[in-house]
């Protein structure tokens, strides 16, 4: 070690994090003393989390065992001697010193050594000095082999992970973020489930580490992953039957249509057989939904394991710079997903994000050929068999704006209060806000915009926006000949009431009750 690196490392380790520190023990949050308040505030923007709090917490901090009793019992029954080893891949760009080091220590402290082949760190062209020589030297102390690769240019999470996967030697790849802490018993259930079925992707419960004080709060074990019409990942509550199943079997994996993407395990050979990541995607964003569609449609499955807990620092926004505007990058990646995997349902995305229709999204032939080669099922199959409770209808009659004949106004949910009436506003045709005017008259007779449905009651006394629930109050007919939208149980017609839409007695001559459903199928 040269003197400069030695001096840097000495300074970096001169914080409570590398000495005995009671702060944050057992997953508790840290209270910043008054004399550090100004420093806390000024340094928050470095990583968009409380760096000062992190530096007060030991890199070897203690955590409770967050598993249920059922999980502790089932975990004790796993024969780990027969399980394959995992290569843990962690990519990072300008990560804070104490968070990446705490990530490594938590893995080392709470993982059976014989189950880890190595840890592969991929530095995505960081410019912080502590992620160069000091990191290279520090990781030598771990019993687990830790390999650090420094990329020569900014590549983004997707390509950085692909670099890490190429380096990895273990039969299982386990992708993690660089600001996480694992808890007791986290690794065994992930490896066990992949070992039982090589076509299975498994993700842990993601616990929350506060970006303000680094306190732990356990993630819910009654959620599964879905997606929105703009192809953003979205958590869904289990329905009653699934909740009962979970109560009865608190150690059973949860079937999930999509994964959050930051943390998951997969068989290494299967990862490549299924097309790894889409190398045409840029930087970060949307890759988790793409891999979720692909795995399910092409013969695999996905689960979340309630017995595996990994804490993650959630931030309100990314502190990192992109060569392109972040929303553009994400929308471009999502557009690639829509074009390759969603068949006719891609129109849901493009109606919501009209700007994506004009984006240059790169060559898709390789990914389309992959889909053909793997003999993947249609997206309609995915909606019916995997994600039937997602907000995208597998059967629908129309998709687009609902336009009133009287004044050309569009039904709009933007800025409206849940339980209040839908608005009527100037129709928007080429702006992102158009998404608030995109409605689908579904095969279940709902008038739906994502998870919001138009609703009335048996008396037809009002029209309002409610969360979709499948009730009779949310079913409508459309008279194609006249253009009336008729509430099924009350028999009343949707009516233009100037700034809002309401329901009223149907009268064929009233232009206020004549509507055009954009994208109406014949």
TrEMBL record:
The record's SMART domains line, in alphabetical order, gives:
RICIN (SM00458)
Q: Which domain of life is it from?
A: Eukaryota
Q: A GO CC term?
A: Golgi membrane
What CDD domains does the annotation carry? pp-GalNAc-T
Task: Indicate where this protein is primarily found.
Answer: Golgi
> Which residues are in the Ricin B lectin domain?
396-518
Q: Where in the cell is it found?
A: Golgi apparatus membrane
Q: If you read the UniProt record, what top EC class would you report for this enzyme, in one word? A: transferase
Entry cofactors: Mn(2+)
A Pfam family per the record = Ricin_B_lectin
Q: Could you tell me which SUPFAM superfamilies the record lists for this protein?
A: Nucleotide-diphospho-sugar transferases, Ricin B-like lectins
One GO MF term: metal ion binding
What keywords does the record list, in alphabetical order? Disulfide bond, Glycoprotein, Glycosyltransferase, Golgi apparatus, Lectin, Manganese, Membrane, Metal-binding, Signal-anchor, Transferase, Transmembrane, Transmembrane helix
Pathway in which this enzyme or protein is active = Protein modification; protein glycosylation
Q: How does it sit in the membrane?
A: Single-pass type II membrane protein
EC? 2.4.1.-
Q: Which family does it belong to?
A: Belongs to the glycosyltransferase 2 family. GalNAc-T subfamily.
What is the protein's given name? Polypeptide N-acetylgalactosaminyltransferase
Give the organism the record lists.
Caenorhabditis briggsae
Name the lineage. Eukaryota, Metazoa, Ecdysozoa, Nematoda, Chromadorea
